[in-house]
Specification:
Keywords: Oxidoreductase. InterPro entries: Ald_DH/histidinol_DH, Ald_DH_C, Ald_DH_CS_CYS, Ald_DH_CS_GLU, Ald_DH_N, Aldehyde_DH_dom, Aldehyde_DH_Superfamily, Succ_semiAld_DH. Belongs to the aldehyde dehydrogenase family. One of its GO terms (molecular function) is succinate-semialdehyde dehydrogenase (NAD+) activity. The chain has 14 helices and 22 strands. It is of the alpha/beta class. The chain folds into 2 domains: 270 residues, Aldehyde Dehydrogenase, Chain A, domain 1; 188 residues, Aldehyde Dehydrogenase, Chain A, domain 2. Helix 3 runs antiparallel to helix 6. The longest helix has 21 residues.
């Protein structure tokens, strides 16, 4: 891999504006998921360095919060400009460590940068209120202030955008941030830190802790009284543990957790567009996204027609290295992910499902799981209950609207849902009945900077992006002015 700017390839952590090697000289290896080759050995930090980052962030917060909104906005805008300028290199680093096709990776860079641009603008729109007083000599005002030092724990599937979606609003609000990226994909985080440094983000305002000591570093972050907010994207199981850990210091938390997204195709849907939406929603990042469609419910009268057209399109999907031209399906992140997906498929087949396409790893590369279509699926199979997180489409059959709404909601998760239909009375009914934080109607792609991203139920709480994303990093303070003469 050739980078135009080799300085973006960093292997040391970033604390207090400095590139930091671990005090014990320990490192961990980062692997290319396509061929399992070692890409780099990255600093493996622990409790000591994490405490140093917390101290640095606390010190930096006192001055960063005092900057005007326009000053913070200008620095964030420089960061956005640098990300845009270097999107090709950032995309290459992302593909190398995560595996997704390069055009998709560059698309993630653009998406990630859009949060920096958006919150650079929103920094100047943090408004308070004046409220009619309850007594004649009282005046009531509310102001919004940054919550303090923020910890962000981010996943491997979107190693760029999941960082900017948290860091940008936090910095715009006036907070200082400590990021712990996933151990599979730390290089993208470090490249972002290099560009943030060049943009003029002051030392200590942004810190990157690279580590494979997940529990040790996580406990240090959650137990610290200095950290006032934790933002996490990842599994529901881990999210629940983090919530418990944050309870001891009553931190504000936001959680973007697991999903089990339904994709419903009603009888009156445009089948061709529904197939197109299914492909887009399911196979992005080889199915390794939290908002990927997970369970496909198709009306019995169009079931065969939809399945046939979908299978034809699935066959066209090119697999291979993310650096190969035209590839749409890259590798899974690791062997455990492959085994998990394969176990779900084998369970479905053992309980009567029919395999239409895929169902195994590629003969040419065992890191790639072939795009898979299953029919005759029922709710007693694991593919109904589990978040698949792989390139698998299990297709369920339904007959009534009431039935499919019950099936779609029959899960503890509530992140994203999708459906296709043309009866607008039905559209409103279904959209309101689905127990999900986000609903795509006649579209399989819903993620955008300007809309609030987040779930309900065990998919978490809090919203990222949009005008609501800033509120996660602000506290509302109420000011009551008394003894005001009414003469």
């Amino acid at each position: 891999m050739k980078l135009s700017d080799k300085a973006l390839f960093k292997t040391d952590a970033y604390i207090n504006g400095q590139w930091v090697a671990p005090s014990n000289q320990h490192t961990f290896s980062v692997y290319n998921p396509y061929n399992q080759e070692i890409i780099a050995d990255v600093a493996d930090l622990g409790k000591k360095e994490t405490e140093e980052a917390i101290k640095a962030a606390a010190s930096a917060f006192t001055s960063w919060k005092k900057k005007t909104a326009s000053e913070r906005s200008a620095i964030l805008r420089k960061w956005f400009d640098l990300m845009t300028e270097h999107k090709e290199d950032l995309g290459k680093i992302l593909t190398l460590e995560q595996g997704k096709p390069l055009p998709e990776a560059i698309g993630e860079i653009t998406y990630g940068a859009s949060f920096v641009e958006w919150f650079a603008e929103e920094a100047k729109r943090i408004y308070g209120d004046t409220i009619p007083g309850h007594q004649g000599d009282k005046r009531i005002v509310t102001i919004k202030q940054p919550i303090g030092v923020v910890a962000a724990i981010t996943p491997w599937n979107f190693p760029n955008a999941m960082i900017t979606r948290k860091v940008a609003p936090a910095l715009a609000a006036g907070c200082a941030v400590i990021v712990k990226p996933a151990k599979n994909t730390p290089l993208s985080a470090l490249a972002l830190a290099e560009l943030a440094h060049r943009a003029g983000i002051p030392k200590g305002v942004l810190n990157i802790i690279t580590t494979q000591k997940t529990n040790e570093v996580g406990e240090t972050l959650t137990s610290s009284p200095i950290i006032r907010k934790l933002s996490f994207t990842g599994s529901t199981t881990v999210g629940k543990e983090l919530i418990k850990s944050c309870a001891s210091t009553v931190k504000k938390v936001s959680m973007e957790l697991g999903g089990n997204a339904p994709f419903i195709v009603f009888e009156d849907a445009d089948i061709d567009k529904a197939v197109e939406g299914a492909i887009a929603s399911k196979f992005r990042n080889a199915g390794q996204t939290c908002v990927c469609s997970n369970r496909f419910f198709v009306h019995e009268n169009i079931y065969d027609q939809f399945t046939k057209k979908l299978s034809i399109e699935v066959k066209k999907l090119k697999i291979g290295s993310g650096f190969e031209e035209g590839v749409l399906i890259g590798p899974m992140i690791n062997k455990d992910a492959i085994h998990f997906v394969d176990n779900l498929i084998q369970d479905a087949l053992s309980h009567g499902a029919q395999l239409i396409e895929g169902g195994k790893t590629s003969n040419s590369n065992f890191s790639i799981y072939l795009p898979t279509v299953l029919t005759d699926v029922n709710k007693n199979m694991l593919v109904f209950e589990e978040e698949i997180f792989g390139p698998v489409i299990p297709i369920f059959k339904f007959s009534t609207t009431k039935e499919v709404i019950q099936l779609a909601n029959d899960t503890p998760y509530g992140l994203a849902a999708y459906f296709y239909g043309r009866d607008y009375a039905l559209i409103w009914k279904v959209a309101e009945a689905l127990e999900y934080g986000m609903v795509g109607i006649n579209t399989g792609m819903i993620s955008t900077t300007v809309a609030p991203f987040g779930g309900i139920k065990e998919s978490g709480f809090g919203r990222e992006g949009s005008k609501y994303g800033m509120d996660e990093y602000l506290e509302i303070k109420y000011l009551c002015f008394g003894d005001i003469s009414v003469d």
